[in-house]
Every structure is written in C-alpha cells, then in structure tokens.
C-alpha cells in the first residue's frame, strides 16, 4: 500500500467534497501523539482532498478577522503536513514568506491549499494559499521552505 493510500484509508477520504463539517481534522493527518499546540492551533480545520504534492483543507472563520499570526501558523502547519513522511522526524522550517492580501470576515468559509513547489535532497518548498471559498478572493499566500531527513533507500 502506498503512502497516499495509507493516508486516504486513515482519513477515510471520499472523492466528494464534504461540506457538512464531518471531514477529518487536519491534525489527524500529521501523526499520533500530537502536541497541545497542534491540537489547539488546528482545531476546526477539515481535510478536503489529499494527493501527492497537494492538500486542500477548509474551515469557517468564527472569530472575525484572521490575524497574521494565525495565517503564519496555517502556512507552517499545512505546508509541513504536505511534506511530512511517516516514520521520520518532522521537517524544520528554514524560511517562510507570507503576503497578507485581504482580511477574512466573520463567518466566511476559507479554503487552504498547499502545493509542493519542489525538492532537492532533504530541502522542500511549498506554497500555501488561503482564500475565501465562496468568492475565490485570496486572503494570504505563503511560501514555506523546510529541511528534513530523507527516507533511507536501504
């Protein structure tokens, strides 16, 4: 069974978009034994789709304007989840660059997508886009560079 099949089976993802709030939480994707920080900071985020080099999540902003620190956390956590390799330590952030383009308003449903930009050795780069799910307006865009150990080829 491939890694993507394991993730899909673990999360029990379907090919349909789930809008009823019953999709798996993104922290379930990361690993068992998660920290309080991960549980608290990722609460309410739902996984929509997982493919090699791509993750799509969503959540509803209930508190009003999404602060810049929360956006930076989304770039860090969702970008990190994309490159996480089961059985290896998490990747270490090397650089993040975030552009906040507009504000999320109270009650808006937001879509967070993360794509793998490239990799060389243990170095990987992702782009994370936070947008209004209804209008498509981009709220923020972040590039996240990480370094980690590669899986052994032995």
TrEMBL record:
Q: Which Pfam families match?
A: 4HBT
Reaction catalysed by this chain? Answer: a fatty acyl-CoA + H2O = a fatty acid + CoA + H(+)
Query: Can you list the GO cellular component terms from the UniProt entry?
Result: cytosol; mitochondrion; nucleus; spindle
InterPro entries given in the database record:
ACOT13, Thioestr_dom
| Record keyword Mitochondrion present | yes
Query: Keywords of this protein's UniProt record, alphabetized?
Result: Acetylation, Cytoplasm, Cytoskeleton, Hydrolase, Lipid metabolism, Mitochondrion, Nucleus
Location of this chain's protein in the cell: Cytoplasm, Cytoskeleton, Spindle; Cytoplasm, Cytosol; Mitochondrion; Nucleus
Q: Which GO terms describe its biological process?
A: lipid metabolic process
Gene Ontology MF terms: fatty acyl-CoA hydrolase activity
This protein's source sits in the domain of life called: Eukaryota
Chain ranges of the Thioesterase domain: 64-116
Q: Does the keyword Cytoplasm apply?
A: yes
What is the role of this chain? Catalyzes the hydrolysis of acyl-CoAs into free fatty acids and coenzyme A (CoASH), regulating their respective intracellular levels. Has acyl-CoA thioesterase activity towards medium (C12) and long-chain (C18) fatty acyl-CoA substrates. Can also hydrolyze 3-hydroxyphenylacetyl-CoA and 3,4-dihydroxyphenylacetyl-CoA (in vitro). May play a role in controlling adaptive thermogenesis.
Family per record: Belongs to the thioesterase PaaI family.
Q: Report quaternary structure and partners.
A: Homotetramer. Interacts with PCTP.
Which PANTHER family does the record cross-reference, listed alphabetically?
A: OS02G0521700 PROTEIN (PTHR21660:SF8), THIOESTERASE SUPERFAMILY MEMBER-RELATED (PTHR21660)
Q: What is this protein called?
A: Acyl-coenzyme A thioesterase 13
Lineage, top ranks: Eukaryota, Viridiplantae, Streptophyta, Embryophyta, Tracheophyta
């Amino acid at each position: 069974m491939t890694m993507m099949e394991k993730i899909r089976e673990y999360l029990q993802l379907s090919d349909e978009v789930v809008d009823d709030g019953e999709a798996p939480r993104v922290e379930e994707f990361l690993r068992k034994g998660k920290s309080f920080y991960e549980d608290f900071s990722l609460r309410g985020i739902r996984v929509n789709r997982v493919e090699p080099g791509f993750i799509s999540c969503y959540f509803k902003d209930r508190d009003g304007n999404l602060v810049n620190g929360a956006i930076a956390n989304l770039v860090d956590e969702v970008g990190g989840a994309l490159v996480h390799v089961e059985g290896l330590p998490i990747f270490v952030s090397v650089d993040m660059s975030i552009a906040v383009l507009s504000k999320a308003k109270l009650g808006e449903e937001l879509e967070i997508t993360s794509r793998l930009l490239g990799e060389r050795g243990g170095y990987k780069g992702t782009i994370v886009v936070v947008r209004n799910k209804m209008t498509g307006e981009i709220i923020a865009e972040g590039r996240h560079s990480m370094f980690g150990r590669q899986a052994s080829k032995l």
